[in-house]
Structure formats: structure tokens, C-alpha cells
Task: inverse folding
């Protein structure tokens, strides 16, 4: 059975509400882009700053500012890219890896407190469904957004950056 238009619309609104609730809570506590830069450096470093910008879908100048702040805090270090002298490689320091680990643990504690009264079955079900939604969005979402944008090229200009 396929979802009907009303069900799709309700899911769209709910995922938007959830994303906004998360954004509001996190933007008061930390900068998600800075955390993303550190996470990329921990998971993939040494990595080019430009590649971090692509992964995070962030402006290169924003990533550069965040890298500078992380370096100034002793959480990351940079080095020239031997393959391209114009680029820099970003790598987390031991302090950066430890800080990110602690940060993620606190995030798990906060999220755990939010869902403390949920059953394990509900947590597993939502996790499975979110994973499925993320996979579907990753493989199809951008293509469908581009298709919709080409069908309505002069509409919704107010929403563009």
C-alpha cells in the first residue's frame, strides 16, 4: 500500500518540525558546522578543507573559519596538501578526538533523556525507519528536488539563498 497525499504531507511536516526543533536546540548550545568539521577531521583526516565543505554542504569560507577556530583551540591541525600547494589538509589532534568523543557522549545522554520513557521496540523501530528514510533521501531526494526546481524555475525565489 502506498502512502496517500495526506500521509506524505503529514510526514513532510513532521520531519520538518523535528529538524527545526533539533536545529533550535543545537544552535543555542553549539555550532553544528564546527562540530561537523571536527567530525570530518576525526573520521577522515587528514582531509582537504574543500572536501569537508562538500561533505557538509557548507560554504568553503565558513569551513575555513571553523578550521581556524579548531586549530586555535588545539583541536585540529593543518598542513599543506602535498598534491596541491593551494589546499590544506585538516587533521584532528588527540585533544580534538577526545573532545569529539565526549561531545558525542553528552549528545547521547541528552537524546537518551528525551526518549527515556520510550520502549526499546519503539527506539529500534524509529531507528530503522529513519535509516530507511535517510537512505531513500540520499539516493532520490536531490534528484527529485532538482526536477521540481526545473519544473518551477521562477517560483519560490523568496526561499533561495
Result:
Amino acid at each position: 500500500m502506498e502512502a496517500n497525499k495526506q500521509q506524505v504531507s503529514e510526514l513532510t511536516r513532521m520531519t520538518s518540525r523535528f529538524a527545526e526543533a533539533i536545529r533550535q536546540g543545537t544552535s543555542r548550545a553549539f555550532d553544528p558546522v564546527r562540530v561537523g568539521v571536527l567530525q570530518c577531521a576525526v573520521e577522515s583526516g587528514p582531509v582537504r578543507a574543500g572536501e569537508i565543505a562538500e561533505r557538509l554542504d557548507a560554504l568553503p569560507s565558513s569551513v575555513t573559519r571553523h578550521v581556524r577556530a579548531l586549530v586555535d583551540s588545539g583541536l585540529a591541525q593543518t598542513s599543506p596538501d602535498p598534491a596541491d600547494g593551494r589546499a590544506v589538509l585538516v587533521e584532528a589532534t588527540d585533544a580534538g578526538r577526545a573532545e569529539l568523543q565526549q561531545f558525542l557522549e553528552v549528545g547521547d545522554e541528552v537524546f537518551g533523556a528525551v526518549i527515556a520513557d520510550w520502549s526499546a521496540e519503539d527506539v529500534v523501530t524509529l531507528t530503522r525507519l529513519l535509516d530507511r528514510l535517510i537512505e531513500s533521501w540520499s539516493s532520490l531526494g536531490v534528484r527529485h528536488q532538482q526536477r521540481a526546481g526545473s519544473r518551477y524555475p521562477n517560483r519560490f525565489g523568496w526561499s533561495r539563498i
